[in-house]
TrEMBL record:
Residue ranges annotated for the Hexokinase N-terminal domain, each copy included: 46-241
Protein name: Phosphotransferase
InterPro entries the record matches: ATPase_NBD, Hexokinase, Hexokinase_BS, Hexokinase_C, Hexokinase_N
Any GO BP annotation: glycolytic process
Gene Ontology MF terms: ATP binding; D-glucose binding; fructokinase activity; glucokinase activity
Pathway of action: Carbohydrate metabolism; hexose metabolism; Carbohydrate degradation; glycolysis; D-glyceraldehyde 3-phosphate and glycerone phosphate from D-glucose: step 1/4
First-level EC class: transferase
The species this protein was found in: Gossypium tomentosum (Hawaiian cotton)
């Protein structure tokens, strides 16, 4: 999946992006003209980035073999590998016959959702879905456990009050929690650690279901969690509702993870009684995987500056929270050492995470002849003035980082 490097940086007279107001009130971009070309020093830096990010077949085979070894070691004993291989206590999956109203809370990362779903069985399937999505304020990602769960419970209360009653088993709700948890039953689980940029105090080692139930009590909400699942397990269950051949689920979002259906007799560390199905879902927590991954100096620097250095390496190389930051660090290096954007150094480009993964995706998909979209994102997001030759290199950087993740 390597990307061919740009051999030369062609001079261009196009440059910085400005905005002006059109007669109908819609903002439009206007390009101011400046002369000059990108320093040729940036081109070999791009080539080095592409080489370090390359994932030829032998590298992929080595990564796959290392992950297989970690899977087996993690199934044998807790702590046997970087992969937690967490047992989900989910040993039966939807059949498509389910009917009724169901409530769920999905805490997936920087956002969470509260949902009410009406199912109609195989004939009607999903009849209706109502949901609210709420962004978690940045300060709550490093607040106390009580502050975070009180905020979540308040949003749940606002959603519940729209309905006024809970048909079926009163007050039961499913809780999808997308962080590493050691489950002790279908409705309890101990938080192992926060990931995805969270550093909430007072939660590690505690039952997250108890934390939510207590927050709901404080907010006067007459509800209790009846099932706790990881987002990968929830994804697998949701897919199985439609297709009974589904055996694996993968999450690629703010973070990344995977789960699959495993035979209980293939899990040496499992000590309980086998379920009638003889199978259970295992949550890999593969974001913590690290062996044999192609890493750049920008990956290592970003990891060293993170709140959890040395952890979640696989997640940091392929997930949505980090791709924009990897590209930003590469572009900053090219600007400082290779004069990618001329002699001036854009101050905003030095700000960590100023360039997001959505910005990266937008630039990567630019098909215009003058790479107008690349230029506008650079100027509006990072305060960077660019010409066509620098935008070509920026596009290649975006393509390289995204394709390694793919």
């Amino acid at each position: 999946m390597s990307v061919t490097a740009i051999a030369t940086a062609t001079p261009s007279a196009t440059g910085s992006f400005r905005t002006r107001r059109s007669t109908n009130g819609v903002s439009r971009f206007k390009m101011s003209v400046r002369s000059g070309s990108v320093s040729m020093a940036a081109a070999p830096m791009l080539t080095k980035l592409q080489q370090d990010c390359a994932t030829p077949l032998p590298v992929l085979r080595n990564v796959a073999a290392s992950m297989s070894d970690d899977i087996r070691a993690g199934l044998a004993v807790d702590g046997g590998s970087d992969l937690k291989m967490i047992l989900s206590y989910v040993d039966s999956l939807p059949t498509g016959d389910e009917k009724g109203l169901f409530y769920a809370l999905d805490l997936g990362g920087t956002n969470f959702r509260v949902l009410r779903v009406e199912l109609g069985g195989k004939d009607k399937r999903v009849i209706a879905i109502e949901s609210d999505q709420v962004s978690i304020p940045q300060e709550l990602m490093s607040a106390t456990s009580e502050e975070l769960f009180d905020f979540i419970a308040s949003a749940l209360a606002n959603f519940a009050h729209k309905d006024g009653n809970f048909p079926g088993k009163k007050g039961e709700i499913g809780f999808t929690f997308s962080f590493p948890v050691k489950q002790t039953s279908i409705d309890s689980g101990i938080l192992i650690k926060w990931t995805k940029g969270f550093a909430v105090s007072g939660t590690a080692g505690k039952d997250v279901v108890a934390c939510l139930n207590e927050a709901m009590d404080r907010k006067g909400i007459d509800m209790r969690v009846s099932a706790l699942v990881n987002d990968t397990v929830a994804t697998l269950a949701g897919a199985r509702y439609w297709d009974d051949d589904v055996m694996v689920a993968v999450i690629l979002g703010t973070g990344t993870n995977a789960c699959y259906v495993e035979r209980m007799d293939c899990i040496p560390k499992f000590q309980g009684e086998f379920s009638p199905s003889g199978r259970t879902i295992v949550n890999l927590e593969w974001g913590a995987f690290s062996k044999g991954l192609p890493l750049t100096v920008f990956d290592r620097d970003m990891d060293a500056a993170s709140i959890n250095p040395g952890e979640q390496i696989f997640e940091k190389t392929i997930s949505g929270m980090y791709l924009g930051e990897i590209a930003r660090r590469a572009l900053l290096h090219m600007a400082e050492e290779g004069s990618l954007f001329g002699k001036s150094m854009p101050e905003k480009l030095s700000m960590p995470f100023v360039l997001g993964t959505p910005d990266l995706s937008t630039m990567q998909q630019d098909g215009t002849e003058d790479l107008h979209t690349v230029g506008s994102v650079l100027y509006n997001v990072a305060g960077v003035e660019s010409n066509l030759s620098s935008r070509k290199i920026v596009l290649e950087v975006c393509d390289t980082v995204v394709k390694r993740a793919a």
